[in-house]
Structure formats: C-alpha cells, structure tokens
Amino acid sequence: MSEEKTPKNFIEEIIDEDLKNGLAEDKLRFRFPPEPNGYLHIGHASAICLNFGLGEKYNKPVNLRFDDTNPAKEEAKYVEAIKKDVEWLGYKWDNLCYASDYFQELYDWAVEMIKNGKAYVDSQTSEQIAEQKGSLTEPGTESPYRDRSVEENLELLEGMKNGKYGASEHVLRAKIDMKSNNLLMRDPIMYRVVNKAHHRTGEDWKIYPMYDWTHGESDYLEQISHSFCTLEFLPHRELYDWFLDQVVDESKVRPKQREFARRNVSHTVTSKRKLQRLVEDGVVSGWDDPRMTTISGLRRRGYTANAIKNFAKSIGIGKRDNLVDMNHLEFHLRDDLNKNANRVMCVLDPVKLVITNYPEGQEEMLQAENSQEDESRGYREVPFSRELYIERDDFKESANKKYFRLTIGKEVRLKNAYIIKGESCIKDEDGNITEIHATYDPDSKSGSGTEASMRRVKGTLHWVSAQHALPVEVRLYDRLFTVPSPDTDKEKDFMEFINPDSLEIITAYGEPSLKNLPVGETVQFQRLGYFCVDPDSTEDKMVFNRTVTLRDTWAKIEAN
To answer: Contact 229/290 with Cβ under 8 angstroms?
Structure first.
C-alpha cells in the first residue's frame, strides 16, 4: 500500500511551478522579516512556521532579517526577544540580517534613481502630499517640486542625510504615476528624516528608508527567491516589482512576492499597537504576560513549541483571512501535553480530610506513576499521612447516584493510595465544612496486589498530605477577552471586552516534589489541568501558571 502524501498548499505549488519553469533549485532561498517594534504573536508564529517550514521541506536556507528602518519605534530588546522566539520554536536561520545592513546600498540606488529621473525631493507638508494623492475615484495631482533638477535633488538629499533639515521639511519620492489606479504607485515616499538614534547605526543616518523601498531591495541583495507576506501587502506587489525594475541585474535571482491569508485566533488581538496598549495601560504585566498571545506569553504560560507548530500545520495556508477558534489551538496544546507532561498532585481549594483509623504519627511513602501515557517516565514517591487535603468540591454530605466523589457512607479511592469511606464532617458556625472524617481499608493499598486493592470503586480523588504539603501560588489564567473578535466592532473600543476574570491568584497545596520542578516545566495537576512553573518562582515560593484546563470550558459558556 502506497504511503499517503500530504497535499501541497498553493505556496508550495508556486515554488514547484517556478522550479519547473527553469528556476535552479540551488537558487531557492526564503526569509522571515519581522519589524523589531514589539514582541511576536501567534500570527507571526504561523508565518515563522511557513517560511522556516519551506526551508525544511526544500532543504534550503532561510534568513532572519529585521526590518529595522524606524528608530522611533524599534528597540534592541525586541530583536533579542524575536531571536529567542524563533529559536524556541526549533528553527535555525542561515544568515542573521538587518535592513540597516543595506542602508548605504539603498542610498546609493536612490541617488542613481534621481540621476535617472525616477526620484525627486518633495518639500510639501505631509498633509499636502496626502491631499494630492487623490482617491480611488479621483487621480492624484503632481507635486510642484516634481520637476526639480537632478542637481538640486541630489543636494537636498545629501542635506537630508547629513541632518541639515528637520523631520517634516523634505521627503524623497519615487517618480511613477500620479494617475495610477493603485494609490501606492502615486509617487510613494522612499525616504523621510527621523531625528532618532538607531539601535544599530547610532547617529550615522538622519534619513531612513520606507518599508516598500527597503523590503524588495533587501530581498534582492540577499538573493531571496520567494518573498511571502500577508494579504494586506497584495496592493504593494506592483510597487515591489517597480522598485526591483530599477536595480535588478538579469544574471541574478529576481525575488517574487506572493501573499497568503492571516490566521487570526479568537478571543485575542494581534495588532502590535493594541498589544502595546494592553501593556501600557497595565491590563497585563508585560509583553510576556501569560494572557497575551505573544509567543513569549504563550511560552511563559506553558505552551510547547510542538503544540504551536502542529496548530500552524493544521490550519494550513489559505488565500482568505480567517478567524480560528481558540479551542483549536488549545486542542493541539492538550494533545501535546497529554503525551509529554508528567502528572503530579496539587489541591487548589483545600479542605482537611482526617482518616480516623490511620495511626496517629504514622507516615509512609507511596509510589505514584509520573505518566499514565508513558511508563518509561517511571515513578516518584509521595508522602501519605493521617491528615490530608482534598478539593472542597470532592465532598458532599449527601449526593445522588451520579456523584462519584466522596459522601457520607460512600467509598472512593485516593489516587495511588487507599480506598476510604466518608463517615462525618465538621462545620463552622456559617455551615461551611472545615473538616471531613473518613476511614480507610488498610488492605486496599494501590498496587499491593491484594484482593481489597482490586476492589472497584467509581471515584478516584487526588490529595496531598497536610503535614508535607507545599504551599504554592497558582495563577488561574483565562481568556483575556470575553468575545471571539474583540477588535472588529467599529462602535466599541476593544478594551471594553476585557475579561475581568482573566486572572485569579490563589494559594494551593502541592505534593513536595513540586519544589524540584525547574522554571518553564509544564505538568498536569491531576484532574485539574496543566500548569507551568513561572519565572517569578523563588527558593521560598513556587509560582504556577494555569496553562490550560483538562477540558474546554468555554464551549459551554458561549453556548448559553
């Protein structure tokens, strides 16, 4: 039986068609070009997986290139965060590049364009330039400075470069067509003055190239064969090609821009401006807050690289923008963690359980498997004693037949331990249960092989020994927004949809082994969900973030 082949996406079809039509295979080269003006988010993760995935599929190099042309918004800390994200996802770039590497080449080409009558310095205000652009139904009008002499343009550009002029005095524009149906072709700006120090070039430059002028030329200088970007850049393709027409050598590879659709995830925002606002307004603690769908936030929350890559692969590459349900991302997360996360016991809402017939002062170490999914992960020891903590919800004085947890007169098994039977409970003056009393069957120890240990009971509870319990801080994270698409309502600010219950901080009690978990380790708190050790953990206090619940709880909420 032949092995089933994964169908190609349309981008792979484009590449294969180009190879078929004569592009030499050794000329294939891809790139991922982020702007270092913020942290990368789940949408960028899909783009990373696409470009580096193509590199893996075709066994060809992929460059990581930073589009660092706006020093007013870009910082070195974002460069480092992006590099860490790409590496964490498991990808290796061929060359680490920066658009700023090419500032001199770009400038030299701009000078040649002026000499060839393809560019000019415009001295109008930004408002005047915008007004003269026209509209979709009205052609633009030419700048009064469009026919400046080559000598004057060169002198002005040199002055801009050397800091002779202020930020709004002059810009360099390409001379294309003010009547074009594509507004981007109506003499686009190539350079503007920015009086800010650059994170790499310092004070060397006073002018900085615009994205459209920089991007295609950078692709060309790196000999990128295929430049993939999201659909909003489709109108830019004509300009991308026009700029390339001014510089390409026919003996070299000419980059090809093609577009794919964004895959936005529900209950999130992915605009860097909006993510920045969440940080600046204190809604979240920072770019890596576990409620943020930045890659750094997802990593801190306990997501795995495999889960994100499997998610990206499952949604594929499309030609139309689409909103993917958060449940789909969480499905891949649960699937990966179920296979790879160790199991531990932790009680989030504790109530004391006293086993009245267990000898006072006695304690024993019980064997607990680290994973029901993988026996090779072995076992650990957990202490057991007369007084335990169990979840408050795991006990009712009386309940119907469908309640399989502890009640008076009913038996349940304590995970990895003994079968117990509810006997009574103690309440405070408000009627709240403060202590549960039970008896245990000494012959029912899990794994002992006795007849009593084989006895079947319907309920199994997790627990921790009160004497040995480790107090831990648990941060119960939930979705940051209450609606699937918080930033598409034109009548409301997206901040109005912030979920007030997106974070609850509690003190829980865990088994002592939790103390040995390293920062970043994700484990399953049995019966509760997956939790990750947060970097805020110290020698004196362990901090855990809830990564995801064991089951989807939002489906029921949104159905009501």
So the answer is: no
Same fold, 10-100+213-322 and 103-210: no
295 with 44: CB under 8 angstroms?
yes
> What residues contact 83, with CB distance under 8 A and at least 6 apart?
64, 96
Catalytic residue (one of 84, 254, 262, 277): 262
Q: Which of 200, 256, 272, 405 is the catalytic position?
A: 272
Answer yes or no: 35 catalytic: yes
Q: Quick check: 128 and 152 in contact, CB under 8 A? A: no
CATH superfamily of 103-210: Glutamyl-tRNA Synthetase; Domain 3 (3.90.800.10)
Q: Return per-residue pLDDT of the chain as tens, 560 residues.
A: 444 566 789 999 999 999 999 999 999 999 999 999 999 999 999 999 999 999 999 999 999 999 999 999 999 999 999 999 999 999 999 999 999 999 999 999 999 999 999 999 999 999 999 999 999 999 999 999 999 999 999 999 999 999 999 998 999 999 999 999 999 999 999 999 998 999 999 999 999 999 999 999 999 999 999 999 999 999 999 999 999 999 999 999 999 999 999 888 999 998 999 999 999 999 999 999 999 999 999 999 999 999 999 999 999 888 888 899 999 999 999 999 999 999 999 999 999 999 999 999 999 999 999 998 888 889 999 999 999 999 999 999 988 888 999 999 999 999 999 999 999 999 999 999 999 999 999 999 999 999 999 999 999 999 999 999 999 999 999 999 999 999 988 899 999 999 999 999 999 999 999 999 999 999 999 999 999 999 999 999 999 999 999 987 655 554 44
Which member of 29, 35, 60, 391 is catalytic? Answer: 35
Q: Give CA–CA dist 142/129, Å, rounded.
A: 9
The domain 472-558: what is its CATH number?
2.40.240.10
CATH class of the domain defined by 10-100+213-322: alpha beta
| Catalytic residue flag (residue 334) | no
* Nearest in space to 177 (alpha carbons), one of 165, 191, 189, 188: 188
